[in-house]
Automatic annotation (TrEMBL):
It is found in: Membrane. GO terms for cellular component: membrane. Keywords: Membrane, Transmembrane, Transmembrane helix. The chain crosses the membrane at residues 26-47, 67-88, 94-114. This is ABC transporter TMD0 domain-containing protein. It holds the Pfam family TMD0_ABC. It is a multi-pass membrane protein. It comes from the Eukaryota. Residues 10-109 form the ABC transporter TMD0 domain. InterPro entries: TMD0_ABC.
Length: 129
């Protein structure tokens, strides 16, 4: 297993770089944990919203399509991880196995919030849709 944060790789060099373990844990898990932590509050906001049915426009559709494409790539990453582990019997560290699944679940949650906001007129990212 690689070191989470190696001083020789990140600080004592002319070209600093984070380790693979750091990139696939801290840089994925912290934003995902933030979204999942506040997900119940967002669900309550969507459920209690009085306004309904936002008219569909190019902005709404492009937002949904772009997140759906990212979800597709995250799902393909999950399937590729399972393929490498199952077919090629390649040993992977726990963080390498968990990161694609966390990413996929987080983007599915984001897709749910975007779709839920379309039907309940909830503002996302400071824009009124």
């Amino acid at each position: 297993m690689t070191c989470l944060l190696d001083d020789d790789q990140s600080w004592n060099t002319t070209r600093p770089e984070f380790s693979q373990c750091f990139r696939q844990t801290v840089l994925i898990w912290i934003p995902s944990a933030f979204l999942w932590l506040f997900a119940p509050m967002e669900c309550i906001i969507i459920a209690r919203s009085k306004a309904r049915l936002i008219p569909w426009n190019i902005y709404n559709m492009s937002r949904i399509i772009s997140v759906a494409i990212i979800c597709l790539f995250a799902l393909l990453d999950c399937l590729f991880c399972i393929y490498l582990y199952g077919v090629h019997d390649e040993q992977r560290d726990a963080f390498q196995f968990a990161a694609p699944f966390v990413t996929f679940a987080t983007f599915l949650l984001l897709e749910y919030f975007i779709d839920g906001g379309e039907y309940t007129r909830v503002e996302w990212f400071g824009f009124s849709c």
